[in-house]
Amino acid sequence: MLKINQTIHSVVRAIDDHGSGVIFCGRDQVHVRQVLLGEEIEARVTKTIKGGYLGELVRIIKADPRRVKPLCPLTKRCGGCQMQHVAYPSQLEMKKQRIIDALKKTPLSLHVHDVQGMQDPYHYRNKMIIGFSRNNAGDIISGLYEESSHRIVSASTCLLHPKECDEVIATIVDLMKRLRIEPYDARRQRGFLRHAVIRYGVHTRQILVTLVTSERRFAVHKAFVQQLTSRHPAVKSIVQNINRRDTSVVLGKQEHILYGKGSIEDELLGKRFIISSSSFYQINHDQCERLYQKAYELLQLSGKERLLDAYCGIGTISLCVHEQAKEIIGVELNAKAVADARINARLNHVRNARFIQQDASAFMKQEAAHRQHYDAVIMDPPREGSTPLFLDACASLKPEKIVYISCDPFTQIRDLIYLKKKGYKAADMYLYDMFPMSDHVESVVLLRR
Ligand code: SAH
Fold it and tell me: Per-residue pLDDT averaged across 115-121, rounded?
C-alpha cells in the first residue's frame, strides 16, 4: 500500500490507455501524466484510483530526448493536453507506433501510413467547453477541467483556442462580475452558469455562444446579450441551454435562443454548413478537409453509385461529395443534427441526398431485411465504434466498398477484425492528427469485399 503524498523514484515502464506513464512500486501501479516511456522520474502519489494510484510528476531525473518544455504552464494540471511535453514530430510518430503495436496482436495485416500533422498545431479547436468557478479569493475564474475532476484550472487563454474565442470568454467572465451572474458550484449544487460552449466557424469567423445554466430564469439576459454582442460582433447567436441534472454531461435537453438564429455557419470544402449547439461538427476544420478528401479518394465514386453515409452528423461527408454519387442516404441518431443536415442539403442545392433519423444499427438491420442495395458505405461512428448488429447487416448488404472513419483507431481495429470474418479486407490505414497535443488520432480505412 502506498501513502498519499509519498514520493517514488522510478522508471516509466508502460504507457496506459490515456497516455499516462505507469511506474511500479512493488505491486502497486502509479499513473503519472506528462512522462515518456523509459524516463527516470520522481513522482508524488496524489490519489487512489481503481487498480492503483494517480501521481504527479515532481522532477525528471533522466529525460527522453523527445521531451520539450510545454508552451503552456498549466499542462501539469489541465486535462486538455496530454502530449505538450513531446516535440510535435515525435507526437506523430508515437501516435502511429501505438497503433502498429496494437495491430501486432491482431490477425490484421495493415500498412499504417505516417500521421498527417498540422503545420501550426495550435489554435485549431472550433469548439470549446469552458467551466466557471470562484477561486479562494472569491473572484470568478474561467478555464478547463482538471483530468477526471470537477475542478477548474484557471486559464484566461488556451493555446488550442482561436484567439477571438478566448476574448469572448474573457468578456463573459467580466459580464458575470458586472451583472452578478453566479458560477455553478457542482459540489454544493448552487449557482447559475455551469458552462459556456463556444463554437467557431473557422471559415466564416462566426461565433455561437451556448450558456449552460442550472435553471431557466435568467433575469439579466437582455443586458448580457446586448453587451456581449456589442463588444464582439462576431457572436452571431447566443443560446441558453438548461441542465438541471447532477451530471458530467455538459448539455441539457431544454434550449432556447437568446439572440440570432441559434446556429452559425461554416464552410467546408466549398460547401456551407449550419452548426447548432448540440450537433456534432469535426473539431479541427483544416484537418477535417484533408481527412474527407482522403475518404473520397478511397471511395473512387463514378457518379452512378448509391452511397450510404452512416453516423452522418449534420451531413458534411455526404454533402461535400454528392456530385460524385447518384444517390446518398445519411443516417444519424441525433434529431437536431438530422434537421441541420436537411437544412444543409437545401442550403447547398443538393437534391440527391436524404437524411434519416434512426439508430444506425437498427437502420442497417431494416435495410438488410428489405434487401436494399448500396454500392458503397461510408461510416464514421463515435468513439466506442460500431456494433456487431450494424456490421452483420452491413456485410449482408454486400457493398463493394466500405470506408471506415474513426476517432478511435483501437475500437476501429476491433470492428475491422469483425469485418474481416465477414469477407471485407483492408490493406492501409491513413492517419490524420485532428487533435494535436492530445493523445488522440483520427484514422480512415478502405475495406473491399
Ligand atoms: N460523419 C459526421 C459525424 C461523425 S461523429 C462528421 O464527420 O461530422 C459520430 C456521429 O454519430 C455523431 O453525429 C453522433 O450523434 C452519431 N451517433 C452516435 N450514436 C449513433 C447511433 N447509434 N446511430 C446513429 N448515429 C449515431
Answer: 97
